[in-house]
Amino acid sequence: MIKELQIIISILVGLNGTLFVFFIYSFYKGWQLRPQIAIGRKVKKTFTLRDAIFKERWNKIIHQFSPNSTESSKLSIIEADKLVDDALKQIGLKGEHMADRLDQLSEDDIFSLPGIWRAHRLRNSIVHTPGFEVRPQTAEKAIEAYKAFLNEIGVLQEETAGKGSEY
Fold first, then answer.
1. Quick check: 144 and 62 in contact, CB under 8 A?
2. CA torsion, points 76, 79, 80, 84, in degrees to nearest 10?
């Protein structure tokens, strides 16, 4: 009886050791596959087709933006919000809505987060409130907030990344 108990204990110890090694290996592999967000540090990034598409979309938004035209301002804000949402999805943040994805971020990691929240609320007002008017200064601040956020997460790869936004 004692001999059988010793065998069972040695099997359990061996199994626990094997599971522990498997856990460490899985954690290591998972760590290598996590989304890379360039927050507060310089990361050498390889330029990809996805990056080119994001930059092309951003350039289109900037070219159509005119603070003197209410309609072009509204459209630019809506498009910039969609671009940021797509970027959040690309870096692996889950959620049904953009707000769900933004909730997963912290101001300690993303300095431009308060500005992107204000810009997103402005976008929601534009979309959900008939006749909502956007002042030119507010539209410019919102576009700057989107730009600061995209720079900070490394989508636009500009030197102003990490500075945040006044908006």
1. no
2. 170
Gap between the Cα atoms of 46 and 10, Å rounded = 50
Please name which of 113, 118, 121, 122 lies closest in space to residue 150, comparing C-alpha atoms.
113
User: Tokens standing for 145?
Assistant: 């907030």
Q: Are 54 and 48 in contact (CB under 8 A)?
A: no
Q: Which residues contact 48 (CB under 8 A, 6 or more apart)?
A: none
Closest C-alpha among 150, 154, 152, 147 to residue 163? 152
Reading the block at residue 137, the tokens are 């200064």
Taking the model in full, what pTM does it have? 0.66
Alpha-carbon torsion 79, 167, 102, 157, what sign?
Answer: positive
How do residues 18-65 score in pLDDT, each as one tens digit? Answer: 999 988 988 888 777 766 555 555 555 555 667 788 899 999 999 999
* 99-128 pLDDT, tens digit each: 999 999 988 888 999 999 999 999 999 999
Do 75 and 64 form a contact (C-beta atoms < 8 A)? yes
Q: What is the DSSP letter of 73?
A: H
What the block records as the tokens of 10 is 């040695």
